[in-house]
């Protein structure tokens, strides 16, 4: 549960570095970008606890975000990783609720429930339906004020094992070890940032129960915490609840803020390591200004100019023009004492990484010497503004409004610290950005190359802590109605209005995803959809990227198993010019042969990355084993195809795919957001009403396959791997099966929640794994049901036995219990509002309805249908879904030690496979 905020995607680090919230139009930002305030009220309780409240009534949910001003920087050498270990312990029960923290919250419909640790803070957050708020506040206050009596050696040992498996899991991924190396080599010995957040195995082993108690007493007092409550609640109601639940918790010791210590490097440090990676990659790291500083805002805009987006300098030169790199990137990692500016480049196979490194350094030096252009700065400025606006659709989660307010309050000491950052962003000029670059990037840096290896009570009230508060009943969901219209060419338009923010999302949904790839051309849909924005009859790929950046819009295209889609996200006041680009991409792609040859190596590099990542590799291997290689669904679940098939694809194949699949006869236009049909239909008619396609064809039908007649075990040997990826699966009925809800409920109880049977067994009871679960994958027709986990290598066979035992008991002597069904129903019904809060989530629900041919009111009827489901129906659904004697097993890990034990199981043939 470490925060994954290291790479900038869709403005993520912009949200983190321009951290709090209310953005208003500026002299530099285009006036037609209407960015709303986030109004809030701040209260400080008598015990020093800070409460910040924001009211947002659009959806009946409330986000609670609790931040403690303590992270890995507050550790000591020899006790690293302790902040994160303690975060895990906070989920293991308190004195008055001595059980898994996830269990009651899943039972009341919580969504986005998690905790994260970084160098500067630890936070715990969840969204709950409004009637469930008391349950969440009771639990949060109980672990803040009543934790130590529930922590014992058994829990410490359990979570120590879980965290160590999390560390193994991360290091078992391509390039995963660099996050331990960068702190070590970029900061001086003894610096609070000179060790990784997750710590070392030796330090985790050394943690004692006394350490736990001391950490809690030192850092988890009320005065070191900030609570943000955002959503369907007013400030005075929130204040009264927080005073009741938290008012009697001791303030804790008086703590001093750490002094700023950026520790810029004065020399160039070069480190080269070998790892099990498919391509060489180099990281460049500079230690720079602290978070919430003018210089850091400037450096974020410089990162965008340098390597973010197709029009950035390094992407244009190394990826697009020279095709010597498969990807580049740059981002700012904001921290309280001093941040880091990072750039990376991944070499295309056969390219000299040292030459690419020099190209990166030359580009950085040029940017320092000249500064960004006005166009580059304005593009970044617009991206930061619009990225924040998109994050503000949600009250909780990463980048949501409660997250932004908490970040400003804890790190800057003021929820209103956004005002300074906003003014710095408004006032930034190419010259001021250049000065920040000279100050911070003109000094030393780290170059880390990864090469492929060869094999107190004052205001509180009396709270009943003998039992959790009971939440109210879930109400039926009321998603906006699906308004339908048709353009003159027959293309159906489906609109869901949601008007509180000036944003619109448009999705073209076309039948025929990568399941429709012809035999021998697997990966065609993925390559073809990746080509749509690579040039039209009137715009080059770089023209498209530049125009979208200037509008603050984004267009993405891709393929899933059954669908090809093209998505537009735009500000509603700029929708018309954004639709012009969207139309051009859909109707006039040219699929330049040169661009195909640029994209092909990147897809091949992506396949190599998938094969190097054990879990993705297993997802590549399993479907052909379940369906057979001749079935449309018998292709890698990643959609990327095979090396030989991607190499065989020619431009004519791409054009043919587009003409057959991306056509009005096969498609629907889904629109969600700030627009009505009276305005929308003419806009779409003008751009798509005369669209015709004479070559459109329906995708192939997916025939029903019989279950395997027995179990089969397939092994992929990965010598030296610290973990084994386990996938066990078989086919399940389509989502239109009359028992689908019962099967989904059975899956959720078995492996779809944190507190489900298989996760509690392998993670919590035995701590062999960081996590285990089960899933029914999405498909229009017959779908895979799989059980999955990553387990420490020496527990491979034992974990398989546990999976098999749990599945047999689910359909036999230990069927779904009444309390499990109640937990599933409450989780599913109460969490529905939280799963449909943002436009993207709403569009996702509507896309599922359209793509799976479900009723328009499917989600609005779901609460009543789930509440009416009986225990007998769910048990029958489990028997219909789960077939333990038909499992196909895929294992990826160090298999040499397990072959004999696997054969002795007697479950079926044991076959070795390669990653191909």
TrEMBL record:
<feature type="domain" description="Peptidase M16 C-terminal">
    <location>
        <begin position="649"/>
        <end position="826"/>
    </location>
</feature>
<dbReference type="InterPro" id="IPR011765">
    <property type="entry name" value="Pept_M16_N"/>
</dbReference>
<keyword id="KW-0732">Signal</keyword>
<feature type="domain" description="Peptidase M16 N-terminal">
    <location>
        <begin position="495"/>
        <end position="614"/>
    </location>
</feature>
<dbReference type="InterPro" id="IPR050361">
    <property type="entry name" value="MPP/UQCRC_Complex"/>
</dbReference>
<dbReference type="Pfam" id="PF05193">
    <property type="entry name" value="Peptidase_M16_C"/>
</dbReference>
<dbReference type="InterPro" id="IPR007863">
    <property type="entry name" value="Peptidase_M16_C"/>
</dbReference>
<dbReference type="GO" id="GO:0046872">
    <property type="term" value="F:metal ion binding"/>
</dbReference>
<feature type="domain" description="Peptidase M16 C-terminal">
    <location>
        <begin position="207"/>
        <end position="384"/>
    </location>
</feature>
<feature type="domain" description="Peptidase M16 N-terminal">
    <location>
        <begin position="54"/>
        <end position="174"/>
    </location>
</feature>
<feature type="signal peptide">
    <location>
        <begin position="1"/>
        <end position="31"/>
    </location>
</feature>
<feature type="region of interest" description="Disordered">
    <location>
        <begin position="447"/>
        <end position="480"/>
    </location>
</feature>
<protein>
    <submittedName>
        <fullName>Peptidase M16 domain-containing protein</fullName>
    </submittedName>
</protein>
<dbReference type="InterPro" id="IPR011249">
    <property type="entry name" value="Metalloenz_LuxS/M16"/>
</dbReference>
<dbReference type="Pfam" id="PF00675">
    <property type="entry name" value="Peptidase_M16"/>
</dbReference>
């Amino acid at each position: 549960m470490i925060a994954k905020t290291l790479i900038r995607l869709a403005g993520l680090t912009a949200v983190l570095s321009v951290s709090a919230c209310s953005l208003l139009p500026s002299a530099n930002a285009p006036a037609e970008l209407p960015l709303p305030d986030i109004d809030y009220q701040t209260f400080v309780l008598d015990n020093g606890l800070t409460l910040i409240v924001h009211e947002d009534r659009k959806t009946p949910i409330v986000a609670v975000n609790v931040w403690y001003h303590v992270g890995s920087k507050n550790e000591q050498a020899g006790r690293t990783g302790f902040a994160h270990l303690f975060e895990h312990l906070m989920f293991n029960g308190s004195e008055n609720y001595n059980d898994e923290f996830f269990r009651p919250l899943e039972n009341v419909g919580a969504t986005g429930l998690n905790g994260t640790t970084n160098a500067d803070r630890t936070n715990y957050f969840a969204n709950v339906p409004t009637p469930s708020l008391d349950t969440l506040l009771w639990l949060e206050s109980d672990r803040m004020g009543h934790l130590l009596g529930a922590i014992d050696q058994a829990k410490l040992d359990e979570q120590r094992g879980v965290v160590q498996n999390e560390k193994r899991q991360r290091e078992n991924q391509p390039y995963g070890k660099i996050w331990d190396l960068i702190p070590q080599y970029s900061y001086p010995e003894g610096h609070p940032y000179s060790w990784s957040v997750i710590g070392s195995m030796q330090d985790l082993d050394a943690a004692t129960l006394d350490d736990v108690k001391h950490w809690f007493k030192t850092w988890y007092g009320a005065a070191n915490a900030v609570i943000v409550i955002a959503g369907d609640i007013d400030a005075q109601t929130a204040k009264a609840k927080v005073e009741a639940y938290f008012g009697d918790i001791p303030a804790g010791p008086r703590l001093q803020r750490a002094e700023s210590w950026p520790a810029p490097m004065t020399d160039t440090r070069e480190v080269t390591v070998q790892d099990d990676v498919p391509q060489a990659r180099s990281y460049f790291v500079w230690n720079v200004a602290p978070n919430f500083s003018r210089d850091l805002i400037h450096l974020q805009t410089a990162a965008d100019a340098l390597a973010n987006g197709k029009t950035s300098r390094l992407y244009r030169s190394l990826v697009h023009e020279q095709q010597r790199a498969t990807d580049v990137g740059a981002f700012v990692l904001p921290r309280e004492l001093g941040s880091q500016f990072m750039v990376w480049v991944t070499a295309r196979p056969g390219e000299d990484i040292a030459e690419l490194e020099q190209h990166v350094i030359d580009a950085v030096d040029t940017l320092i010497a000249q500064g960004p252009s006005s166009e580059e700065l304005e593009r970044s400025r617009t991206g930061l503004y619009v990225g924040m606006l998109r994050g503000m659709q949600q009250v909780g989660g990463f980048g949501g409004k409660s997250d932004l307010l908490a970040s400003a309050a804890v790190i800057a000491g003021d929820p209103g610290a956004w005002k300074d950052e906003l003014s710095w962003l408004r006032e930034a000029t190419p010259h001021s950005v250049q000065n920040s670059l000279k100050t911070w990037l003109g000094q030393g840096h780290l170059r880390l190359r990864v090469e492929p290896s060869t094999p107190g009570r004052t205001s509180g009230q009396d709270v009943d802590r003998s039992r959790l508060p009971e939440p109210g009943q879930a109400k039926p969901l009321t998603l906006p109605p699906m308004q339908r219209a048709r353009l003159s060419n027959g293309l159906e338009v489906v609109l869901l209005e949601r008007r509180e923010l000036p944003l619109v999302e448009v999705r073209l949904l076309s039948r025929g995803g990568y399941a429709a790839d012809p035999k021998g051309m697997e990966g065609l849909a993925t390559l073809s959809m990746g080509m749509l924005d690579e040039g039209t009859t009137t715009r080059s790929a770089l023209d498209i990227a530049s125009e979208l950046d200037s509008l603050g819009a984004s267009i993405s295209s891709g393929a899933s198993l059954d669908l090809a889609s093209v998505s537009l996200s735009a500000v509603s006041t700029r929708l018309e010019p954004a639709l012009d680009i969207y139309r051009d991409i859909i109707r006039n792609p040219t699929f330049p042969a040169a661009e195909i040859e640029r994209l092909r190596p990147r897809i091949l590099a992506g396949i190599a990355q998938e094969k190097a990542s054990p879990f993705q590799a297993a997802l590549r291997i399993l479907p052909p084993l379940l369906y057979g290689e001749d079935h449309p669904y018998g292709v890698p679940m990643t959609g990327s195809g095979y090396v030989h098939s991607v190499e065989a694809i020619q431009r004519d194949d791409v054009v043919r795919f587009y003409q057959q699949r991306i056509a009005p006869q096969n498609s629907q236009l889904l629109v969600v957001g700030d627009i009505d049909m009276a305005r929308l239909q003419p806009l779409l008619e003008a751009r798509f009403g005369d669209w015709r396609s004479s070559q459109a064809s329906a995708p192939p039908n997916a025939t029903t396959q019989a279950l395997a007649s027995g179990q089969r075990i397939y092994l992929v040997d990965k010598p030296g791997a610290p973990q084994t990826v386990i996938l066990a699966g078989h086919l399940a009925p389509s989502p239109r099966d009359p028992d689908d809800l019962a099967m989904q409920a059975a899956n959720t109880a078995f492996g779809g929640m944190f507190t489900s049977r298989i996760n509690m067994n392998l993670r919590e009871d035995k701590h062999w794994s960081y996590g285990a679960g089960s899933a029914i994958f999405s498909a229009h027709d017959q779908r895979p049901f799989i059980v999955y986990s990553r387990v420490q290598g020496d527990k491979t066979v034992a974990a398989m036995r546990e999976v098999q035992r749990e599945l047999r008991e689910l359909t036999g002597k230990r069927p779904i219990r009444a309390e499990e069904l109640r937990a599933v129903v409450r989780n599913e019904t109460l969490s529905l509002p939280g799963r449909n809060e943002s436009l993207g989530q709403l569009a996702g629900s509507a896309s599922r309805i359209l793509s799976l041919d479900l009723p328009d009111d499917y989600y609005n009827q779901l609460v009543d249908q789930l509440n009416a489901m009986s225990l007998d129906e769910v048990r029958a659904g489990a028997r219909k879904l789960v077939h333990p004697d038909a499992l196909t097993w895929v294992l990826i890990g160090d298999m040499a030690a397990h072959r004999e034990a696997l054969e002795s199981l007697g479950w079926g043939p044991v076959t070795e496979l390669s990653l191909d």
